[in-house]
Amino acid sequence: GPTSVVNLMGYANPAQVAGGVHMRLFARAFVFEDTATEKRFAFVSADIGMGSDLINMKVVERLDSLLGEGVYTLENICISGTHTHSGPAGFLQYTLFQVTSLGFMNQTFTTFVDGVAEAIAAAHQGRVPGSVGMAQGELADSNINRSPTSYLLNPEEERAQYDADTDLNMLLLRIADENGNAMGSLNWFAVHGTSLNNTNRLLSGDNRGYASYLLERDYNGATADGVLPGQGDFVAAFASTNLGDVSPNTEGPRCIHSGLPCDAVTSTCHGRNEACIAFGPGTNGDMYESAAIIGTRQYEHATGLMKDAAASPLLSTPVDYRHLFVNMSDVQVTLSDGSTVKTCRPAMGYAFAAGTTDGPGMFNFYQSMNETTPFWNAVTGVLSAPSPGEVACQAPKPILLDLSGINIPYEWDAEVVPVQLLRLGSLFIASVPSEFTTMAGRRLRATIEKALRDEGVEGDIYVAIAGLANSYTDYVTTFEEYQGQRYEAASTIFGPNSHAAYLQLFDGLARDLAAGRPTPQPEGVAPPDLSDEQVQLIPDQVTYDSVPLGAAFGQVVSDVNTSRTYSSGDVLEATFWGANPRGNLRTGDTYLAVERRVEGAGQEARRLASSHREGRSSPRHHGARGGGSSDTNEEWQRVAADGDPETRFIYHRVLSSTGTPHPEGPLVSDRLALSTKGDSLHHSQATLWWQVPNATAPGEYRLRYFGEANMRLRGPQPFQGVSSVFTVA
């Protein structure tokens, strides 16, 4: 997706604007087909903030053209976001999620649709006879509950059934061909994609992306082997599940000015939420190191489970699925005592604006707010004032945003949502369009298993929850947690009975699936397609790029330090005059390369160049590949690219009059100007950053930058920049 200008999705921080790449984002697709019945489904774990109903619609349209009509429908695809908070925004069709992104972003959306559709098509076309193994086990020291006071509101006898206030279990599938060779791995583990906080401006898969990178590298090879991240046949997905109240910031929250604990209930320091922040295990809270640590722990655990799964075959037929669209604002729920309750029209509570300890909000909001204020009532009442009935339905939530009453410029949040249950033999995957909390997920798994047993399913039953799948409707807490009105409860938009409604819906899907009967779809109930109504303030196209008089694109501005020798752990960087990277996303390629001189390489250099050219790259790639092992003199071997986490591609602009950095800001005028051109006041620069990994081979190295400038008269012009040669010992 776009690596500049666009707001990052997750923290709703208008100042968090993309400015480069930490790791590339991927869609990882798996297709399972029962050859006896020819039933199949596709499961996609995508490095995006969350699922989108509009993405699903357009992916199905693309698959109709790629594979034939009806091979995949909305019923048999599941697209689950990993919930990284470091991916570009603008791909959801509802207004609430477009406020900080300044509307829809077609470049983000089309890139995501293309990537997901192409991944599914590649998986479908690459089907072979095979088998699935399964293993599970607990992983410690990799998550904490960020709303522990809410968790404690659940019944004591229920909490006593569990050893922790988060789910520690990782459930893993090992997919193999008929000879037992590993083709891929798919697992679910509860942790938020928030190791990188709201000060990060680089695209990244966060801790899950890091784990996927490591496991795929083990099987596919590294960049130095001629295999870029994302290339190779082995696919490893670390998918999201019921992570609603689960944080990777294992050091916990503290007051940043004093180091003292925050208030446990409100997550404030002296009454302010902005100063209460949770930190990961990285040195001095280093967020990139924290993402690497949490990602490595997941990778190491998955590596062990892969070995166990090789010896533990899963009953993987029948393959089946059930899917239902439901208007979640109008579900009547029958409780265990026979009484009935209803869900509510969507609304956000005050604590929604407080944010979380992973990313605090602003102004005078705090978690566990249970009453309204005249000032904010007046402000939000201009958009829509909730009716007395809506206030009563959502109680004890104090309503900040009455989402159901706002339709300017179009709907603010989804009301019709998909629920889906996939079956792979004895594994059942519940696709939920939201973030379930720990206890909400536990109850859902138990409900599904009980329904299956009641309907006569025998033997082993495993239930996984695919979170943030197929659409996005914020959070789901238990009824008890809802009473505490922390962030997750305030963001449970359909009211206190939301969770009970989901339990009832999935109970029905499970019974239908087990009994082999269809699930009837109510006539006329489907999400809208608002693609023709989308408002986009940031144009897709970069009009032109420019450099100062006397400078050239790719020219070095600040070089590496050649007077010293580098070793493992050292950081070096070089800065070049560049172009806005939104002009060419270099999908399936890279903006940078770290290259090592290979004296007398001859055939070896040619072999690496050949393997690099034959690697799987997107058909949407523009411009010349250039650089690395395919250099014409064939004496440089590419050892790292921008998808490798030891590198960073950092985009920024400078004031042309002074040459000083000018960070992108949240102002509309600022981002609109930057989105379309390198104007007379600003020029683009790109910094290439590399931290020398352990066991790096000694020798001479250089950094290479790949860009594409949009010229006023000549159109897109590819260029390169190369640093001076430096030594690693």
Automatic annotation (TrEMBL):
Catalysis performed (reactions): an N-acylsphing-4-enine + H2O = sphing-4-enine + a fatty acid
Zinc found in the keyword field: yes
Active site: 247 (nucleophile)
Domain Neutral/alkaline non-lysosomal ceramidase N-terminal residues, every copy: 1-504
Positions of Zn(2+) binding: 83, 192, 435, 475
EC number: 3.5.1.23
GO (cellular component) term, any one: membrane
Enzyme kind, highest EC tier: hydrolase
GO biological process: ceramide catabolic process; long-chain fatty acid biosynthetic process; sphingosine biosynthetic process
GO molecular function, one term: metal ion binding
Region (Disordered) residue spans: 602-634
Cofactor binding comment, as recorded: Binds 1 zinc ion per subunit.
Sequence ranges of Basic and acidic residues compositional bias: 602-617
Keyword terms of this UniProt record: Hydrolase, Lipid metabolism, Metal-binding, Sphingolipid metabolism, Zinc
Known cofactor(s): Zn(2+)
All residue ranges annotated as the Neutral/alkaline non-lysosomal ceramidase C-terminal domain in the record: 506-602, 679-728
Family statement: Belongs to the neutral ceramidase family.
Protein name as it appears in the record: Neutral ceramidase
Source organism: Rhizochromulina marina
